[in-house]
Design goal:
It contains 14 helices and 23 strands. With 427 residues, it is of the alpha+beta class. A hairpin with a 3-residue loop joins strand 7 and strand 8. The chain is globular. It starts with a strand and ends with a strand.
Length: 427
Amino acid sequence: MVAVRPSSPLAGSVTVDGSKNAALPLLATAAALHRPVHLGNVPANTDVETMLTLLQQAGWHTARPVRDVHPTVLLPIDKPQSGPDPEVAARIRASYYLVPALLGAYGRARLPWPGGCRIGERGMEQHFEVYENFGDRTTVDDHGYLVEAGAGRTGTVSLALPFRSRGATVAALLRAVVAGRPLRLGQPNLSPEVLSVVEALQTAGWECRVSEPVLALAPPTSVSGEPLAWAVPGDKVEAGTLACAVAATGGAASILGVRSDDVAPLVTALRWLGISADIEGDALTIQAHNAEPTGRPLRAIASLAPGGLDADFEPSLMALALILPGTHLFADAINPGRHSNLLPQLARLGAEIQELSPTECRLTGPQRLTGAGVEATDIRTGSALLIAGLTAHGVTTLGGLEQLRRGHADLPTKLHALGADICEVTP
């Protein structure tokens, strides 16, 4: 666990890791293309390590330079393997990204139900609908699901998603790649993570046309076996967490390695609250030492719409809003179990938050928080509790670091580099 004490204003500069949420589908994309891929800026968190283990178990070769863990080389399978270990696959949600690659290599994919953070139902119905549109057959049981590739078909696959699911959008793109068929996907998810997959496919020769109503994908006119080189974008959520921590302590810092479009909704929220936030190039700069809080009510509503607020920004913004004037509303219907994790932990610190529904809550700040023992029950709850601990009176001890490290190789170290009073303690 770590101990967090009230900190002086955070200052300096720090570089974010590569994005876990982008790295996982990019690894699956490399496997689906069945070509050598050099992937740079791969983060060293445990979810990514689990995905690499699953790929190795399924026969792909992965390698990392001894002195630099961030690049990863993925090579196609040369001989069949038994496939991913169900116990290992159940540790992460993103195991479902591997279905298309497994169908292409083996004609079938047997996986457990998605694991990872316990933040609500992990529905797979849209994924199964995608595969059925490609002629695949899906069966389910209490332990997981089996997808079996259908007979080879040709022609364009056209379907529309009922809502903008990131997982189902990636499933459709990668299934089209494995089938070598054109795709027209209505109501796609256009998050930065999906667009990273689109950009990667474009480097492999696929023609992609992206719009809010339809994402169209067409195979390359010729197939090459030449190696590809991609890079994982910087972690926008880690950047957002660090930005909220700097703002909460009244600091001034630069957070490097993040794309401006990826953090635009967060920057808008911070400015609304009266925090000076600017993005230039790959640097997000927070100037909160002379901030004048507006007292305006923040509406932090998680959204899958293009340009909407990513649900993973919401917990950090909630921790920040606790110390700022105004009555603020937070909602996350995308991950319906997240608030049931986060709110009780914040309450241990003395936070008074009114739960309007299982996915919606309201709070009025500023509030006085007091250090206590809390638990990172999921990745984003852990991030928010670190921020809250920086403003609470007394010592906050945060357990459950294994959850936090699933998404961040070492977030406490980055905060410490900015001057946060954080140290690791032995229980």
